[in-house]
Amino acid sequence: MVTIPNILSLLRVPLALVFLQENPLYRALAIVLAMATDWLDGYLARRHRMTSRFGTVLDPLTDKFFVFVVLSTLIHEQRLNIWEAMAMLCRDFSVIIFGFYLALSGTLASYRFRAIWCGKITTTLQFFVLLGLTFQVPFPPFVFGSFILLGVLALGELYLDSHKLPISG
Q1: By the 8 A CB rule, do 131 and 125 touch?
Q2: Counting CB atoms within 10 angstroms of each CB, which of 40, 47, 70, 75 has the fewest?
Q3: E strands within 89-135?
Q4: What is the per-residue pLDDT across 7-23, written as a single tens digit (0 to 9) for each?
Q5: Where do the domains of the chain lie, and which CATH numbers do they carry?
Q6: Nearest 5 degrees, angle CA 99-CA 106-CA 102?
């Protein structure tokens, strides 16, 4: 489905390739534009009722692609080590674990994924950390530890959200 939100999501793919340039300003621009398109695609989709099942899959996939390319590049350049990158992906691991839970419980097909607060906070923190790393700003270990905490909280938020009782009235 071709909509403006989906086009904005797809823009993160070439933005990831821009990050492969060694120029810190190009990299920063790619990160800022990826952050802006991530916010804008969701806003426009909700505001103008252009949400679709395709868009709810496309948006996080392009986010993950962008982050994967950036993290891989930073690991390759030794600006980030493996444990820090894995910590930054803890929310994603939680979503995968939750998906397995839904599959095993037989509710995956009927579950409607939506944005969660821990996910929004994690994404924002990821973008700021990636921006800092682009300019070689060192981050203390507790920053990466916060990604682990947010991953655990995301798993809890997903679980609690899946067990909400329907409101009768």
Answers
A1: no
A2: 47
A3: none
A4: 999 999 999 999 999 99
A5: 4-162 (1.20.120)
A6: 20
